[in-house]
Design brief:
Order of helices and strands: EHHHHHHHHHHHHHEH
Largest sheet: 2 strands, antiparallel
Helix content: 55-70%
Number of strands: 2
Strand order of the largest sheet: 1-2
Oligomer: single chain
Distance between the termini: 12 Å
Number of helices: 14
Length: about 325
């Protein structure tokens, strides 16, 4: 008997919904601490602290935005940001107006990345990634791409018995652009891992995350650093550079995804719990990473999990095709 794969399966739809809610919780926590930072008068400080070391054109752009905020007054801008943060969280948590607020989230992430995040610049010795703003933008892009699937017919065009993500012209093919963008971002990250500084200072990235953390977290980091020194920081740095390069190649080419997507999710969770100190320390009006409470790597893990759902179809809705039914009649 021939079977047709529903498109996408209800399992995938449920998984997309669970990831959306997870992202909504992350965003809500982040928004709460950002609003506290704004109430303490840290808003203009976020801009001021990124006014050194950038490219001349970027420095001028950020200065122009900074001047515009001063002329407008910080209160209207702060209120607008707080309202947008809350509305984005509500949309993610409830699933309402996802297409509209997904686009808002993309633009918001790009704005934060290009102003407070200064596009990740300056890209100097010790840099490892371009900052969280672009990662949030990609996460919102994936949420937006998944949103139309929730309420549409789930049958694949032509009723072909294929995996949803692989069907030519199918709805899940839309995620290819997100995968390639994420691959380009990951390739950029990987390129910095081949710098000699990264190899020689590998353990220090974890040690620096200990400041202000609770005792159990410091003990955990120190254990990881001890293991790194036993193996050798240079060897560990080289292994990380190789893994990140392979992850970028897999994402860009679409090859070996079933192997590297879970590896990427586990690897980035490892970074989050060590070098990023679980996104902490957490305190009123401040974040471990400015404007991004939960840290950068956990967003990478979220995106890897999203692609696992896309490229690991959940076959829980098999049904006979119409042709098979006719042939049996």
């Amino acid at each position: 008997m021939e079977y047709a794969q529903s498109y996408p399966t209800s399992g995938q739809q449920t998984a997309f919904g669970a990831l959306r809610v997870t992202f909504g919780i992350i965003w809500l926590i982040n928004a709460w601490f950002q609003i506290q930072s704004i109430s303490l008068g840290h808003f203009l400080h976020w801009f001021a602290e990124n006014h050194s070391g950038e490219s001349p054109w970027l420095h001028a752009y950020i200065g122009w935005i900074f001047h515009g905020i001063q002329l407008t007054g910080t209160l209207p801008i702060e209120v607008t940001i707080a309202v947008v943060d809350i509305l984005l969280a509500l949309s993610l948590l409830t699933g309402l107006w996802l297409r509209f607020f997904g686009v808002v989230g993309i633009l918001y992430g790009l704005f934060v990345w290009s102003t407070m995040g200064a596009l990740g610049e300056p890209y100097s010795t010790g840099a490892t990634d371009p900052g969280p703003g672009i990662v949030y933008a990609i996460a919102f892009l994936l949420i937006t791409l998944a949103a139309p699937i929730d309420s549409q017919d789930t049958s694949p065009p032509g009723g072909a018995d294929v995996a949803p993500a692989a069907h030519p012209g199918g709805a899940l093919d839309r995620f290819t652009i997100g995968r390639i963008l994420f691959g380009l971002l990951w390739a950029f990250d990987a390129s910095w891992k081949w710098h000699p500084y990264f190899f020689s200072h590998f353990a220090s990235y974890i040690s620096h995350a200990e400041a202000g953390q609770p005792a159990w977290m410091v003990a955990y980091d120190q254990f990881v650093v001890h293991v790194i020194h036993l193996i050798g920081p240079g060897i560990c740095g080289l292994l990380v550079a190789i893994l990140e390069t392979l992850l970028a190649v897999s994402l860009l080419s679409g090859k070996w995804l079933r192997l590297f997507l879970p590896l990427g999710a586990l690897f980035t969770l490892g970074i989050w719990t060590t070098a990023e100190g679980w996104g902490g320390p957490y305190s009123a009006g401040s974040t471990g990473m400015p404007g991004n409470l939960v840290g950068n790597a956990v967003l990478y893990s979220f995106i890897f999990a999203f692609f696992i759902v896309v490229y690991y179809p959940l076959y829980n809705e098999r049904r006979p095709t119409e042709s098979a039914q006719l042939s049996e009649a």
